[in-house]
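Recall that a protein's primary structure is simply its ordered list of amino acids. Everything else, from secondary elements to tertiary packing, is in principle encoded there. The following example makes that idea concrete.
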Amino acid sequence: MKNTKSPVIFNSISELHRALGLPKPLHPLVSLVDYGTITVETTELEKGMLFNFYKISYKKDFSGKIKYGQSHYDFDEGGLSFVSPGQLITALEGEAGYGGYTLLVHPDFIRSYPLGRNIKNYGFFSYSANEALYLSERERLVIAGLFKNIEQELDSAIDQASQDVLVSQVELLLNYSKRYYNRQFITRKDASNELLVRFEQLLSNYFETGKPLINGLPAVEQIAGELNVSAHYLSDMLRSLTGQNTQQHVHVKLIEKAKELLTVGELSVAEIAYQLGFEHPQSFNRLFKKKTELSPLDFKRSLN
């Protein structure tokens, strides 16, 4: 029978500690959990968990599986994964079967800091589970050192600088993760290039088969879904390889198609705008001029 049980929602870090049979966290808004200390039965949690705080996990030496959406992903090699508040995850075999650490950070802990506003810019919090960050040995040592620093700070007596130090350590962890993801896009170039080829083929097919006229301009989420990756991962991968994100690639392809249609000379500018998926020709005119420094009509005239 299909399981219809609702996910277990954790609004506080203390609630998660209790569910995992762990002592009360040293700080109510930030905690570092060693997976090796989890000894309770987690069957109920494995059916689904939703955290209202950030979860940054380094997992190593395990063969568990994580369910994200409708797919299951192996993490045999270990690596870093990131979960933002409100994301649903399912651990099929529990989180006690492998080594590593997980850092839990409540949004209130960083709210008054620049990181509270900027954390949304770390796109990997929106990556799918199969887009985890795999680390080299040197990178593992750096990440392990950062977790160790956070652990030592949490174990120390709280003073006026404690929160500042912890927030700076969390931000440093995120910045290293961003650096290592950029490296991963490059070192896994074959997989990235294959995804880039598929992306370009999909985009070309979309504009060549007249889909914009029926469905409108292609959305980033729609493209990513057809490629079976998350929207943030696709944009970050493209930016790493080409210097342009998904939306910019869409605009390049759109302008190429627009120039082709303007060159043929059979359609008016308004008809071309509608054919390319614009509801209002003015929007097409603004984008075209922004990208080419010419209005569509001026570009058409320049051909003569």
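Residues 203 and 250 are 7 Å apart (CA to CA). The chain has a mean pLDDT of 83.
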